[in-house]
């Protein structure tokens, strides 16, 4: 009898995980439409991301696992242009580790009043500092300090603000 209950519990957990994945994928697709400035943050909050009063442009792409939550924090006043890609989970480049640990997980934090240019790519374990600017098309592989401008592939600090 307890085996039967255990099997039902496993099935319920599997169904719950599938429903969470469908919900998150659906909300992320809706957020990409960005009909108004509050549309994308509203739907992305429902995916489990922590998003303040921020502007998020069209076609933002967030790459992560469906069951990960709080791996993306966007603070108040942040401006993210269209077609920005934020990656919180990716493959490692080390072939010896890739077999045993296939993914790198990380949190992306975009601090208040920062600005991310069109088409920028932000990789896992990155913090964009307060008031920082990331140039269009930049690939951010390291933290961007507060009040600096980072641009290029990979992104490098090119200017200090204030």
What does this structure look like?
With 162 residues, the protein is α/β, with parallel strands linked by helices. It has a single domain, classed as UDP N-Acetylglucosamine Acyltransferase, domain 1 (3 Solenoid). The chain is 27% helix and 27% strand. It contains 3 helices and 16 strands. The strands form 4 sheets. Strands 2-5-10-13-15-16 form a 6-stranded mixed β-sheet, with no helix packed on it. It has a 4-stranded parallel β-sheet with strand order 1-4-9-12, covered by helices on one side. The longest helix has 32 residues, at 2-33. The protein starts with a helix and ends with a strand.
Our Rg estimate from Cα atoms comes to 18 Å
How many helices? The count is 3
Principal-axis shape: globular
What is the number of independent domains?
Answer: 1
**What is the helix content?**
25-40%
Number of beta-strand segments:
16
Query: Which CATH C-level class is it?
Result: Mainly Beta
Mean pLDDT level: 86
In CATH terms, the superfamily is Hexapeptide repeat proteins
Helical/strand content category:
alpha/beta
Beta content: 25-35%
Largest sheet: number of strands, sense, barrel closure: 6 strands, mixed
CATH fold assignment? UDP N-Acetylglucosamine Acyltransferase, domain 1
What is the first-to-last residue Cα distance?
A: 70 Å
Which ranges are low-confidence, i.e. pLDDT below 50, for 5 or more consecutive residues? none
Helices and strands, in order, run as HHEEEEEEEHEEEEEEEEE
Give the strand order, joined by hyphens, for the main sheet. 2-5-10-13-15-16
CATH architecture: 3 Solenoid
């Amino acid at each position: 009898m307890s085996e039967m209950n255990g099997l039902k519990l496993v099935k319920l957990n599997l169904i719950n995980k599938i429903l969470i994945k469908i919900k998150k994928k659906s909300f992320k697709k809706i957020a990409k439409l960005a009909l108004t400035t509050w549309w994308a943050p509203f739907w992305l909050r429902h995916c489990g991301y922590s998003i303040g009063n921020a502007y998020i442009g069209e076609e933002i792409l967030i790459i992560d696992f469906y069951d990960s939550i709080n791996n993306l924090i966007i603070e108040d006043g942040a401006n993210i242009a269209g077609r920005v890609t934020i990656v919180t989970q990716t493959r490692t480049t080390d072939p010896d580790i890739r077999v045993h640990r296939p993914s790198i997980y990380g949190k992306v934090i975009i601090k208040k009043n920062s600005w991310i240019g069109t088409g920028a790519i932000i990789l896992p374990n990155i913090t964009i500092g307060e008031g920082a600017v990331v140039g269009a098309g930049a690939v951010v592989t390291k933290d961007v300090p507060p009040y600096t401008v980072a641009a290029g592939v990979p992104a490098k600090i090119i200017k200090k603000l204030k």
